[in-house]
Amino acid sequence: xxxxxxxxGKKSRRAGLLGLRGSRVNRIDWPAVARKFGLFAxxxxxxxxxxxxxxxxxxxxxxxxxxxxxxxxxxxxSWTMAGRPWIDFEWGAEIIFRGLECIGGGVALWMFRAASLxxxxxxxxxLLRLWKVPRSWxxxxxxxxxxxxxxxxxLRTEVFSLIFLLLEFQALERRRLGVLGVDGAVFAxxxxxxxxxxxxxxxxxxxxxxxxxxxxxxELRTQPDGTVPWSGLSGILGxxxxxxxxxxxxxxxxxxxxxxxxxxxxxxxxxxxTPSFLFDFLTGYWVAIAFAFAGILLILSKGYALPxxxxxxLLIFGYLGSRSVRSTRYALLTVFPIGVAAWSNxxxxxxxxxxxxxxxxxxxxxxIWRGLRVGTHAxxxxxxxxxxxxxxxxxxxxxxxxxxxxxxxxxxxPYNWGGTFDARLFPDYRMFIDxxxxxxxxxxxxxxxxxxxxxxxxFVAEHEIDLAVVENDGLILHYPWEVIGRPYSVxxxxxxxxxxxYWDRDALVLVRRTAVQKGWLAAHEFKWLGPRDLHHTxxxxxxxxxxxxxxxxxxxxxxxxxxxxxxxxxxxxWLIEFKKGLRRVGRWTPPSSRKSFSPPEAxxxxxxx
Length: 609
Description:
Structural class: alpha+beta
Number of strands: 8
Largest sheet: 4 strands, mixed
Oligomer: single chain
Mean pLDDT: 84
Helix content: 55-70%
C-alpha cells in the first residue's frame, strides 16, 4: 500500500442551506469557524512580547554600519576583544531592525516580531495545503505551532532563517508534486540569489541546504537513470550563493567556530543545551513532536510508506532537534507538518476525531500556560520588552551621569546584559562581554572563576577591572558544611577594595577604591548599607561598630539620590522593625532623650568580620 502526502484526506464539506418548515436557515460552517479561530489564536500568541538580550547589540552594530558605510570586520564594542577579527553574518537583518526602530521605535520592532512569527505559522499552514490537509485542521495546528515556537523566541535575526527554510521546503515539495511549473534548471539557478540573500541575513542557511539534499536523494531513488537531480543540484548552487556576502567564505568559518566550541556552548548557553523535558519553554515543542511522531508511526503501522525525501528529513532534523535547544526550531518546522499530514490521512471515526480535537485543545492550552510561566516579567508591554532591551535602566542613568569619572575605567558587566550595554553606553563605555560568538572562551573563564571568591579575585586582578556592574540577585554562597547568609557580591567584591556607589532592584555598581578620587568616592559611597545585607548591618549596630544615626543618614541619602521604590521600601521597613527590636530589649531610645550612644557590652550577637 503506498502513501502520498499529496492525498492526505478529504476536503471539508461546505455547509449548505437547511430547509426547516418552509424557511431557510443558514447552517454554521464549523470547519471554517475552527480555522479562523485557530489562526486568530496563533496571531495572539505571536503578539506576546518577549525581550531578547541580543537585539540591543544588533541595533548598536547597525548604527555603526550606517554611520561608516561598511560592515564591521573587527570588534569595536568591547575592551576585552577590541580589534579581534569578527564576522557579522547578520548585518542585513540588523539594518532591517534599525530601519524599523527609526520608523516606529520599540512598537515597530514588536509589531515586526509578531508579524514575522505569524508569517512563519502561515507558511507552515500553507505547506499543509499542498498535502490537502483539511482546512479545519488549521484550528489546532496554527495555535499549537505558535505555542511551541514562541516562548524562547524574541525578536531574533534567526526569524529570517525560519521564513527562508519554509519557503525552501514549500518550493521543493511543489516540485516533487509537480505543481511548481518551473523548469528544473531555472529552479536550481534561482537558489543562487535566494541563498545570497539568506546568507546576509542569518547563518541558518545550512538547514535549507540539508533539505535540498534530502530531496536530491529522493530524486535519485525515484527518477529514471540519467535524469538530472535538480533538487540536489539546487543545494550545490545554493551553497555557492552563500559566498555572495561581504565576508565571502568567512561566513562558513563562523559555523566552523561554533562547531569547535560546541561542547563549551552546551555547558554555558541555554540555547545550546541538550533539550530536556524539564524545560518549561520546550513543553509546546515536546507536545508537538510527540503528536507528529505518533501520527507517523500509526500511518506506517497500517502499511503506508512515506516518501524518501520525508524519511530523510525526519531522520536528520529529528536527530538535530535532540542535540540542542536551538535546533528544536528547525525540527519543529519540518517534522511537525509531516506528522500532521500523517494524522489527517488516518481514517478516524467521528468519536476518535472528537477525542483527538479535545486532546489537542488541552495540549495547546497546557503548552501556552507553561510557556507563559517562563519569566512572566518579560511579558509586560513596557519600553524594554517592546524594544527588546532588558537591562538595569537606573544603572544606565547613573553611569551616563558619572561618565566623566567612570568611563575610562575597565568595566565588568554580566553576560546577559552585554548587548544592552552596547546599545545604551557605547561609545562612552566599552563593555566586558556580550552574546556574540567571539566571547565564548571568555564566558567559560567567567563561569569557572565565579565558582569561588578566591578564583574570582584572581580573575578580576588579571583583567585589571576597576568598575563592576553585577546583578542584584541575592545569590548566597553555599558550602557543604554551612550556609553563609550574605550575598555573594560581598565576597566576590570585598568592601576593603571595592566601594558600593549605586544599587537598585536590578543591579549594583562597585568601583575599585584606588581607581577614583577620594572626594568623588566620599560623596557617592554607601559605607554601611547594601542590598540584601541588612541583617549584617544590624549586627554591626548592635555590636557598637557603627552608629544607628549613620545608617539612618545613608537611608535618607538613598531616598534622595537613587530612590528605587522597592529597595527604599525595604530599607524603611527594616529600619522600623529594627528600632522596634531595640526598644523591646531596651537598647535604643529616641535621639532627643539620649545623651550618648553606648551599647551594652553584655549579650551582644557575634559579628562576622
